[in-house]
Specification:
Elements: H1 2-14, E1 22-33, E2 37-42, E3 50-53, E4 55-56, E5 66-73, E6 78-86, E7 89-91, H2 93-96, E8 102-105, E9 109-119, E10 127-144, E11 149-153, E12 157-169, E13 174-190, E14 196-213
Antiparallel strand pairs: 1-5, 1-14, 2-3, 2-14, 4-7, 5-6, 6-9, 7-8, 8-10, 9-10, 10-11, 10-12, 12-13, 13-14
Length: about 210
């Protein structure tokens, strides 16, 4: 999936644009949260088999939440491209319990998705759009019980996203946008002490950003 996504981005970059086509590069940030999820650990007796975890987003703490997007608009209404989102989640001390000293994905519960978009006719300059995509989760897994630690990036499973928003031009090339973005990821991570960690995480984000078109 990751290789296919990179190929799709390369094709979008080199494909000659038709008269109505455009390439759009976007950067966004915002506020992101995540509801609680069940976390399962197998093969490592140092951790509990199941934990109900409450997650916090802390979007503006370093490293902050952000996203990068490349979109090829093949027509005035339809486009496709890649979207990388640096999401993050911290477990609360009460929910993770004393068996964990660290349980978080704070250098990113990162997702890379290949998305398709549909945009609608503008109203008073504001142009609504919707999108959806599939891809992979590439989180930075940080798990420790004070003795055994796991710390590093892993490809942990599939991810899916849906979004809806609106964009507004501020010049011929630049525009600003706001959107709601929902992302679901399945995460199965290998623990350095042996065993695996599994959890499905949902994130909700309100994004604002700027786009450059050419």
């Amino acid at each position: 999936m990751l290789r296919a996504s990179l190929v799709a981005l390369s094709l979008a970059a080199v494909m000659p644009a038709a008269a109505s086509a455009e390439v759009e590069l976007s950067f966004y940030g915002g506020a992101q949260s995540a509801p609680h999820s069940d976390l399962f650990i197998s093969g490592d007796p140092a951790y509990p088999a199941k934990t109900r975890v409450q997650w916090k987003g802390r979007s503006f703490d370093p490293p902050p939440y952000y996203g990068l997007r490349a979109t090829y608009w093949a027509s005035d209404s339809f486009g496709y491209g890649l979207d990388f989102t640096h999401t993050k989640v911290y477990s609360t001390a009460d929910s993770r319990g004393s068996d964990f000293t660290t349980l978080e994905f704070t250098d990113g519960l990162n997702t890379l998705t290949a998305n398709a978009y549909r945009r609608f006719q503008p109203m008073y300059g504001i142009r609504p759009y919707v999108g959806a995509g599939l891809g992979v989760a590439i989180p930075h897994v940080e798990v420790s019980n004070g003795t055994t630690s796991t710390f590093g990036y892993q490809v942990t499973g599939p991810a899916a996203t849906v979004l809806a928003g609106a964009t507004y031009p501020i010049s011929e090339r630049f525009s600003v946008f706001g959107e709601y973005k929902f992302t679901y990821s399945q995460n199965t991570a290998d623990l350095d002490g042996g065993g695996t960690l599994e959890t499905d995480i949902i994130t909700n984000a309100l994004n604002v950003g700027v786009s450059f078109s050419f």
